[in-house]
Design brief:
globular; 5-stranded parallel β-sheet; metal ion binding
Length: about 210
């Protein structure tokens, strides 16, 4: 079943918009807000940072379900999914990896936009409270200056909880980390430390 969002404001469209999409749940609020501004985005799924093919496919499947319900055209660059690109981009700067990951994904989005006649680009990364908004804006503005394609740095975070509630209502798969190996390790760090303590304790008592 498709869903139509009610909007209190309908401005004139700014042009053909390409929305980089990191996952289905994060697309809910940005799509609504952009449509309320009079734009009708197309989604682009390009995320070589996602670690594990099974995780990639799970997020892709959830995005397709979301897109169907939103009537959102979605382009998935599956033949370009290559985590080696991500690891090369962040090599030797893993502790400051996020800006380089943003650049990798947004550069491809802007290139696709230029190749296919889009005049504007935005990203669902601007919805998450866990992402570095200023770093995303810096990359987007740099690419805007370089390509002449407008970057819409909207702040979608005001709909954070609403998006969470809606994704749960729809039964969407909600991942617990951004996607990369390092973020999953960060999430599991306490577990690994606890296991290390248990192993040390077992060694001392044996």
């Amino acid at each position: 079943m498709s869903v139509t969002f009610e909007c209190g404001n309908q401005d004139r469209p700014l042009g053909k918009l390409l929305l980089h999409v990191c996952c289905g749940p994060c697309a809910l609020i940005p799509v609504r807000e952009l449509r309320c501004e009079g734009m009708d985005p197309d989604g682009l799924f390009y995320n070589p940072n996602i670690h594990g093919v099974s995780e990639y496919l799970k997020r892709r499947e959830t995005l397709q379900e979301t897109a169907n319900r939103l009537n959102l055209p979605i382009i998935c660059l599956d033949d370009e999914y290559d985590p080696r690109l991500f690891f090369r981009a962040v090599a030797n700067r893993e502790d400051d990896r996020c800006p380089h990951c943003y650049r990798l994904r947004l550069e491809r989005t802007f290139l696709f936009a230029r190749e296919h006649g889009y005049s504007c680009v935005s990203t669902t990364l601007l919805y998450s409270k866990y992402q570095n908004r200023e770093a995303i804006l810096a990359v987007g503005r740099e690419l805007q200056d370089r390509t002449g394609i407008r970057f819409l740095g909207r702040d979608f975070r005001q709909g954070w909880q609403e998006g969470i509630d809606l994704s749960k209502e729809w039964g969407l798969y909600r991942q617990l980390y951004c996607g990369c190996l390092y973020s999953e390790m960060d999430r599991r760090r306490n577990v690994l430390r606890r296991l290390a303590v248990q192993s040390a304790t077992s060694s001392d008592t044996s």
